[in-house]
Amino acid sequence: MANTEELIAGLSGNPHETNPKIVAQRSRDFYWYSPVLKRQREGVTGDIVVSPRSEDEVIAVLAVCFRLDIPVTPRGGGTGNYGQAMPLAGGVVLDLRNMNRIIDIRPGCVSVEAGAARHARGHHGLGPHG
């Protein structure tokens, strides 16, 4: 990605990762379940992982990416299958795992941030609503 330095300068303190091994790891889901996708997606990776901690940080990252015309692939816990959230055009992998709060619990409804893992929801006081 040609404008990585300009992107990093505009991240306003958002945690980010450029180590190619970590970026590749966070760029993938269980695409290899499909022999066809395994061949097609093997080399797919983002250029940088950005890990916002709040909605305001997400907005800031998206604004910089829009200004620089950098593609963004949002990811929650990375538990998808079949290449559904892989950065096919490179760019930013928006790792939302830091946004993992439970916002509200009501009978029949739980509102969570984008990075809340399904398996963790049962361990945060959901009780009979789990």
Global morphology: flat
Kindly estimate the percentage of residues that lie in beta strands according to DSSP.
Answer: 15-25%
The N- to C-terminal Cα distance equals 43 Å
Radius of gyration: 16 Å
Number of strands: 6
Q: How is this structure best described in words?
A:
The protein has 130 residues and is of the alpha/beta class. It has five helices and six strands, in the order H-E-H-H-E-H-E-E-E-E-H. The protein has helices spanning 4-9, 20-26, 35-41, 55-68, 118-121; strands at 16-17, 48-50, 72-75, 92-95, 102-106, 109-112. The chain has a four-stranded mixed beta sheet, with helices on both faces. A hairpin with a 2-residue loop joins strand 5 and strand 6. The mean pLDDT is 82.
